[in-house]
Amino acid sequence: MKIVVAYALAGAGHFKAAESVYEFFREKNPALEVELVDVLPLSGGLFRKSYAPVYDFMVNHANWLWALGFKLTGLKLFSKLVFLFHSLICRANTVKLADFLIKGKPDYIISTHFLPSVVVSSLKARGKINSKLITVITDFGVHPFWIAPFTDIYVVASEFTAKQLEAKGVNQEIIRDWGIPVSSKFLNPPDKKNLYVKFGIRPDNFTVLIATGSFGIGPIEEMADSLSVDNQVLVVCARNKKLYKKLKAKENSNLKVFGFVNNMDELMAVSDIIIAKPGGLSISEILAMELVPLFISAIPGQETHNLEVLIKHGIGEEINGPEQIRQIIKSYKNDPGKVSGVKENIRKFSKSYAVGELYEFICSGSDK
């Protein structure tokens, strides 16, 4: 059996979801022919070079423009026109990707970004391939870009997401409410005792983890200064080297500073609360670890929708500044019942085993 796991590297979440599926399938059955593919290198030159940078610029420096575009392209009034235009743009700029799929003849294509889903759907419509297409929606809301007519199965984050798909005309029979795929390491929490020693953390002190994405977005320095007065604070600066240097220079025993990390599961395991951006994949990892979340700097559109869904289910809060954050942290610290309540809501809402469900569906014949 040949499986292609496709993503577009525009935002880390699409890649991480695809990587989680790829690694699980390879570990579960090494005999499977599984390929992890970023579709952007198989796209046209200008399209390839501008796709991710334009996205990064808009969400980090022109939020208003991104919000406007997201809203306009999501309007039902323009849905048919938007779908046609989006499909044509994707097809025209992904000739190499189409050739790759036609020649490769995969049995299954698992897509964690709408770009490969649109391309595969177009190829199936024209009889160029007969692969089964599984579209994994990596947010809790559903933008029309995710709707690819020849998708065989949609994997969604929650019951709320499933209902949104149905409202957009997708047949309930092809929707699977399995959650967003996360790495197996988030499903099997590590031993905390060893981690406390590894990170030099006191287990009896309240610990706050700040991790706001690969760019280190938000008033992180102000939050770290405020919260570390009476809490242990772990800060993941990721690719924000300037922030990393500034925080490292502080003489503060309550502050632990990290750059780009690949052990977020360990940092989550030793933390009581996380301050994060509400990206779909980040949320899924947090829920898998049953960690109380506070959200900041939501990207208008997909992340604000994610935030609305979680708050509706009693999971997390939106925060706007260091002083508000300090008061909210204090309320959780002084009320263990509040923490327990959020964790209980997480257990009711979370669906953390999408990788296993996908594997069983494909490899155990349950799709027949």
Short description:
By secondary structure, the protein is α/β, with parallel strands linked by helices. It has helices at residues 12-28, 45-61, 63-73, 79-92, 95-104, 114-125, 159-167, 184-187, 192-199, 220-227, 241-248, 264-269, 280-288, 302-312, 322-333, 336-349, 354-363; strands spanning 2-7, 33-38, 108-111, 132-136, 153-155, 175-176, 207-211, 232-236, 255-258, 273-276, 292-295, 317-318. Strands 2-1-3-4-5-6 form a 6-stranded parallel beta sheet, with helices on both faces. Strands 9-8-7-10-11-12 form a 6-stranded parallel beta sheet, with helices on both faces.
Summarize the biggest pleated sheet: 6 strands, parallel
Question: What is the CATH class designation of the largest domain?
Answer: Alpha Beta
Summarize the helix and strand pattern as letters.
Answer: EHEHHHHEHEEHEHHEHEHEHEHEHEHHH
**Helical residue percent?**
40-55%
The tally of strands reads 12
Shape: globular
What's the architecture of the largest domain, going by CATH?
3-Layer(aba) Sandwich
Distance between the termini: 15 Å
**What topology, given as strand order, has the largest sheet?**
2-1-3-4-5-6
How would you sum up this structure, described in words?
With 368 residues, the protein is of the alpha/beta class. It has 2 domains: 2-182 and 352-363, Rossmann fold, CATH 3.40.50; 185-349, Rossmann fold (3-Layer(aba) Sandwich). 49% of the residues lie in helices and 14% in strands. The chain has helices at 12-28, 45-61, 63-73, 79-92, 95-104, 114-125, 159-167, 184-187, 192-199, 220-227, 241-248, 264-269, 280-288, 302-312, 322-333, 336-349, 354-363, and strands spanning 2-7, 33-38, 108-111, 132-136, 153-155, 175-176, 207-211, 232-236, 255-258, 273-276, 292-295, 317-318. It has a 6-stranded parallel beta sheet with strand order 2-1-3-4-5-6, sandwiched between helices. Helix 1 (12-28) crosses helix 17 (354-363) and helix 10 crosses helix 15. The longest helix is centred in the first third of the chain and has 17 residues, at 12-28. The two termini are 15 Å apart.
